Amino acid sequence: MAQTLRFVKSLPKRERQPLANKFKNADADAVDLLERMLVFNPKQRIQASEALAHEYLAPYHDPTDEPVSQEKFDWSFNDADLPVDTWKIMMYSEILDFHNIEQGNEAGEVLVQGAVQGNATGQAFA
Fold it and tell me: With b meaning 16 or more CB within 10 Å and e meaning fewer, what string describes 101-118?
């Protein structure tokens, strides 16, 4: 992560181009929200709760139906130093879970084996 940040900071500085100039026909509130969301520094970026309360999202905003987590999300799993093949299998497993395919069933088992063995089924991860 530190290397990525160092790389990004080493890039040449460019003058900011206002999004309003790029999206001349867009709603001003939409552009404002987008600009606040696309801030590189997370400490200066709009918070999720603030974004939900933004004027552009007013028609959809319902504070009674927008729970706020009391705990920060733990991203430490992202720091694991694992082989690439392990990351591939983990990602594939998440995709299967997302699509409600149980890995114990025949289809899911074949797909996972394919990803591990690197056959045609697993080539998408190569």
Answer: beeeeeebeebbebbeee
